[in-house]
Specification:
Order of helices and strands of chain B: EEEHEHEEHEHHEHEEE
Number of helices of chain B: 6
Shape of chain A: elongated
Structural class of chain B: alpha/beta
Strand order of the largest sheet of chain B: 6-5-4-7-8-3-9-10-11
Structural class of chain A: alpha/beta
Strand content of chain A: 15-25%
Largest interface: A-B, 54 and 45 residues
Order of helices and strands of chain A: EHEHEEEHEEHHHEEEHEHEEH
Radius of gyration of chain B: 16 Å
Oligomer: heterodimer
Largest sheet of chain A: 6 strands, antiparallel
Number of strands of chain B: 11
Number of strands of chain A: 13
């Protein structure tokens, strides 16, 4: 059984009880701290699998701990385990920091705590993007490809050159979508290695079967507040799914422009064909590797 | 029809039972028809409890609508209402729909309290599209759905219904947003061709329930 580390932040009097409640589940190791400052130091010093924090702490609030956690490890789940009622917590400065709330006053709260913590860790349930219902199967399908060992980059580079030229766009790229980030395999017109899944438009595009087009991100509520996209100069986007023979979407082929842009039905069909081509290239390279493992040894 | 503890009765012509742990994206352009189907799915039967976030109706309207589906369902519901509280303890006012941190905490509390009262839970957002409209950033709503609403449905083995008025204005990405949301839910129920007394619903992703059904409103 894999041990998981849980940072427990509570007052000096209460932290032993909170830590014990967490450790009720034998797979959870509790690390105790009693202040916002100590919690911040731990979060910056080591990886934890989850955080459980009281709201009222001697040098600040549990929301300060959550804020630090979102800075250093955005996807790590957090449970606000507290005597404070929701209406007593000032959330005005944290309007979209979502955490699991478990009031200590609630029935069986201490008994429920370890169950809740294990659950939020297991299901990665505090990510800031929608996950497809079949995310686990999708990631298993992606793991079937030995991405690091496949001699695919040159082929993908040529393909993105061709795509950018065909559509006359500023950028074309091929990205594989992993659990937390999009791994950019080839990119023409920009120097991108990866994008976090929370920031990437492909996170949304992969959820729909057909080609997704965003003519101007300023008009789309999902993206207009996304500073990272603005910083990259992205104005318009079109993305097509790379889908395995088993129907799992593992990546995207995309075109980006620095100005508003639309794509007609023929252009969308062309982009999907490029995505199918990229998928076939990946499949073929993997088959060659499987048949001749020593080729790349 | 006989039911097991593995499924929820959604009482109705054309609607088979829904399995525990099922999340449903309920969509449509007719707000009245959408609400009617929503209450049918979310009203608690005997031994169950409901948690409803209502963005556009008062707590009193919600409990009455639940009672219309199932006698006593209003008394077995905890309601978070943007339109204010009433004299019932089980109705809580939501002060600010854009404060998704506070909203998430209120929802978690209501679910924990309701699950202490009854082992079987129905939960719903009417309207999820109003939350998206109010939010500055849709990503925060996704985070709320992932880390709160869908989480509770799974953990409590409940059924959860998020209603989206597809005529709402999310900017240019409304259709794409709904398509994206659909993949995070177990299934989708789309309400169309609604008249005063009847609507056609198209069900997908819910196994035996899939297909087109005519339902009385």
């Amino acid at each position: 059984m894999t041990q998981r580390t849980v940072l427990c932040v509570d007052t000096e009097d209460a932290v032993p009880t909170t830590a014990s409640a967490v450790a009720e589940d034998g797979s959870l190791d509790a690390v105790e701290t009693t202040s916002v400052a100590d919690a911040r130091a731990v979060l910056r010093d080591r990886d934890v699998d989850a955080v459980v924090t009281e709201h009222d702490l001697p040098d600040g609030s549990g929301m300060d701990v959550v804020e630090t956690l979102r800075e250093v490890s955005p996807q790590t789940p957090c449970v606000l385990f507290t005597d404070a009622r929701p209406g007593d917590i000032d959330t005005s400065a944290f309007e979209d920091l979502i955490v699991e709330y478990l009031g200590k006053h609630l029935p069986d709260a201490h008994e429920r705590l370890s169950v809740v913590v294990n659950d939020v860790i297991t299901h990665s349930s505090q990510v800031g993007f929608l996950l497809p219902d079949n995310e686990a199967e999708r990631l298993d399908a992606l793991a079937e490809y030995d991405i690091d060992d496949l001699p695919i980059e040159d082929s993908f580079d040529r393909l993105t050159d061709l795509i950018a030229s065909h559509f006359d766009t500023a950028v074309a790229f091929i990205g594989l979508i992993e659990s937390d980030e999009e791994n950019v395999m080839a990119c023409t017109g920009a120097d991108w290695d990866s994008l976090t899944r929370e920031e990437s438009i492909c996170t949304h595009s992969m959820l729909q079967e057909d080609v997704m087009v965003v003519e101007d991100i300023a008009d789309d509520k999902r993206f207009r507040s996304n500073d990272e996209l603005h910083n990259l100069g992205i104005v318009s986007y079109a993305g097509a799914n790379m889908t395995t023979s088993d129907g799992e979407v593992i990546g995207q082929v995309c075109v980006i422009d620095h100005e508003q842009r639309s794509y007609d039905a023929d252009q969308r069909a062309d982009l999907q064909q490029f995505a199918d081509e990229a998928m076939e290239l990946l499949e073929l390279r993997q088959r060659v590797l499987d048949a001749n493992p020593e080729v790349n040894a | 029809m006989s039911l097991t503890n593995d499924e929820f009765d959604v009482s109705g012509d054309g609607f088979p039972a829904v399995a525990n742990g099922t999340s449903i994206l309920l969509t449509g352009e007719d707000a009245d028809a959408l609400a009617s189907v929503f209450y049918r799915l979310v009203a608690a039967r005997d031994g169950e409890h409901s948690v409803v976030l209502s963005t556009d109706s008062s707590g009193r309207t919600v409990t009455r609508s639940l009672d219309d589906v199932e006698r006593g369902a209003g008394d077995r519901a905890r309601v978070l209402a943007v339109e204010g509280s009433d004299r019932r303890d089980a109705v809580t006012a939501v002060e600010d729909l854009t404060d998704l941190t506070g909203l998430g905490m209120q929802l978690s509390t209501a679910v924990a309290e309701a699950s202490a009262d009854a082992s079987r839970l129905r939960t719903g957002l009417l309207l999820c599209s109003s939350v998206i409209e109010a939010a500055d950033d849709t990503t925060a709503v996704y985070r709320l759905l992932n880390s709160n609403f869908l989480n509770h449905v799974r953990r409590e083995d409940a059924i959860g219904v998020a209603a989206v008025d597809t005529s709402a204005d999310f900017g240019s990405g409304t259709s794409s947003t709904v398509k994206g949301m659909e993949t995070s839910f177990t299934g989708r129920v789309h309400v169309e061709d609604a008249s005063l007394s009847e609507a056609t619903v198209t069900v997908s992703g819910l196994g035996d329930a899939d297909g087109t059904h005519s339902v009385r409103l």
